[in-house]
Amino acid sequence: MATQFDMLCDVLPGRDSWKFIVRVLRMWSISSFMKPNEINSLEMVLIDEKGGKIHASLRKQLLYLF
Q1: CB 39 within 8 A of CB 60
Q2: Which sequence spans correspond to the domains of the chain?
Q3: Closest CA to 18 of 54, 66, 45
Q4: 3-state secondary structure (DSSP) of residue 3
């Protein structure tokens, strides 16, 4: 049974569950304003196999998962 994956160009509001295969094209961290040595968020540009791109943000509270 083959697993079906979604393309980034098919993303629509209202759906909660997606399965993507992507690569991280670019990644950078955003420092906290009051504490410059503390990371506030991690920003990424993701790309799929068809060349679709999307911006993703990972907030400070979820950095430990990544």
Answers
A1: yes
A2: 18-65
A3: 54
A4: coil
Closest C-alpha to 2, from 14, 19, 17:
19
**What are the beta bridge partners of residue 59?**
41
Q: What is the per-residue pLDDT across 2-35, written as a single tens digit (0 to 9) for each?
A: 679 999 998 889 988 999 999 999 999 999 888 8
pLDDT of the residue at 63:
83
Q: Which residues contact 44 (CB under 8 A, 6 or more apart)?
A: 24, 25, 26, 27, 55, 56, 57, 58
CB 19 within 8 Å of CB 3: yes
C-alpha angle 28-30-32 in degrees, rounded to nearest 5: 160
